[in-house]
Amino acid sequence: MEYSEERFRTLSEKEALYDSLQNLCPALFDVLEEAKADIKARYPSDLFTAQQNRGNISRMVSQRSAKLWNERSDGSWILCDRRGFLRIREVNTGLPCYLRRVDPITGGLPKPNPSSADRAFFSQQRCLGPGELTPMETDLFARHNRMSPKLDRSHIILAWSGEIDEPVSLTAYRPIEAGRFGAANKWDFSLALQGQMPDISNMEFIPTDGEENLLPTLIVDEEVPEDLRLKPDSEISTDDSLSDDEESENNQ
Questions:
Q1: Can you tell me the distance from the alpha carbon of 235 to that of 25, in angstroms, rounded to the nearest whole number?
Q2: Contact status, residue 159 vs residue 171, Cβ threshold 8 Å
Q3: Phi and psi dihedrals of 19, rounded to 5?
Q4: Smallest Cα–Cα separation from 160: which of 22, 246, 32, 53?
């Protein structure tokens, strides 16, 4: 997403992440719903145990989604690699997003695989504040007075329930540590995604210090009187993890 020079100077990383994910949602939900329907219609569930089915179905939905994405993408978001799973990157910002199944114990951000690469993916520094972002292709966009933030330092996990008989439910997380098995991971940004995200053009982001979800605590309608607004409580969210090999995909 591109911003004017004036807006870019006050843009925080969390606001930029929200905007990018908002643009991604409609196509992402369409692809996931179709992938689920395709797998449900053809998958031989009677050949496996219930536990095997959960892992198999989650993996195959990701694989089917990757194929559909590769065929239908408008070019604004592309596959990150050729591993065959839904791992996509926003071209204008470099933001990577990986689909994972929620943690089976916490129901939130999943854990990374034990590989060093996967744990590194989850171990991130906290989001940058207003005025700290670096623009992509500075010279090119400066000539048009438009700039896109460089977001490839952020790694986003798109955690979904893995339930094939239920509507797609997705939460985006930006993990900041690998975490321990059985415990909730830490994140500094989380956002419950919808097929059509709400318009936030007339809203403002208020910093918070808690670990609550983005929409209830960080967005405030400008028309709400000041004394009724939610009090500052800091960043977006914290918790869970990711992996880079096929084993981690099976755990989604």
A1: 22
A2: yes
A3: -60, -45
A4: 32
